[in-house]
Fold Small-conductance mechanosensitive channel.
Amino acid sequence: METLETLDNLNTTLDAMETPDTLVENISYFDAILGKAFTWFSDNLSTLLFIVLVGMGTILVARTVNNIMESYFKRASRRLHMDTTTFRMFRHITVAAVYFIGLVVIIFSIPSLRSLSVAMFTGAGLAGIVIGFAAQNTLSNIIAGIALALFQPFRVGDRLTIMNEYGKVTDLNLRHTVIITWDNRRLIVPNSVISNEAIINWTIEDPAVIWPIEVGISYDSDIGKAKEIMIEEARKHPKVMSPQTLEYSVVKPSILRPETFANGFMNPSVLHTVDPDFRERGGIKVYVTELGDFAVNLRMMMWFKDRSDAYSSGCEIREAIKNRFDREGIEIPYPYRTIVYKTDLQKEKAPQKPTSAEEIKVRYSPRGRLTDIDERTEDDETNQ
C-alpha cells in the first residue's frame, strides 16, 4: 500500500510539472528570445560587418606600415647614418597610433558607445584621473620609454651593465627594453625601472676600455721581472690595443660602417672628441697595489677596443702569465698561517715546572666554598 501511495504522489508531481500549458509557455519564451536576437542581428548587421572590416583593416594597415618602415630603414641605413633607437621608437608609436585610430572609428560607429564616449570627453578631467590611477604602471613605462628614446642614455646595439647584468640592447619599445645577456638570456626590463637604475654604458661615445688584471707574487720573487713578464704576455695577445693617439671616437659604432673611414670620409655627426686624459691609449702599465699578508699584489692595466673583448681576453692573458711565471720561477704564493698554542706561551713564560701536585693546587686553583668542602671531606676520611 505504501509503495502504491508513493507512485501516485510521483505521478501527480510529474503531471503538475509537465503540463502541456507549461511546455507551451517555455517554447514560446525561447522563441521570443531567438526572435529578438535575430531581429537585433538583422537590424545591426551592417554595423557588425563594418566593425569586423575596420578591425581587420586596422590590423592589416598596422602590419603593413610596420613592414614598410622596417624595410625602408634597412635600405636607408646602407646610405645614411640613422639612429636605430629613435627609429624603432618612432615605428612603435606609429603602429600604436594606427591601432588607436581604428579603435576610435569602431567606438564612434556604435551609437551607444558614441554617446558614452561623448559623456567621457565631457568629464575628461575625472576620467583622466581614473584612467591615470588604473594604468599608472603602463603610462609610466610609456613616458619613460619616450624619454629614453629622446635623451638616449643608451641606444640599440650598446653594451650595458645594469642590475648586475652585462649585455647588449636589442630593442627599446613603449613598454620595456630587451637586453641579451652574455650567456644568451633575454633580460626584459620595464622602462620605468631602467630609467631609475644606474647604467654603465660601455659603448656610448668611446667604446675603448681599460681592463685590469691582478696577480700576487711572493716577497722572495723579483718584482721587476714579474712586471716584465706580465707586459710581454699582454703584448702577445692580438686583441690588446697597440700604442696610439686618437682625436675622435665613433659615437654610433653599431651603425657606422668600417668602409666609411676606409674611403677617407669623416662625418662630424657621428664622431666625438676624445677626452684629453685618454687620447694616449694602448700603453700597458703594472702597479704594485698592495703589500699583503703573504703576497705582493700587482695590477696590470691594458687597453681593449671594446668591452666585449676585454673579459675573455683578460682570462687568456691571466692563464698565459701563470704558465710563464711557472717557467721563470716567479712564485704565486698560498696564504700562510702561523698557529701559536696557548700552552706553548705558558711554557715560555713559566721559569720552572712545579715540583708537587700540592704546589700546583695552591698556585693555580682558586680557593672557594667547594674547595673547602672537598678538603674537609678528605680530612675526615683520613682521620677515620
Q: What stands out?
A: Residues 27-122 form one domain.
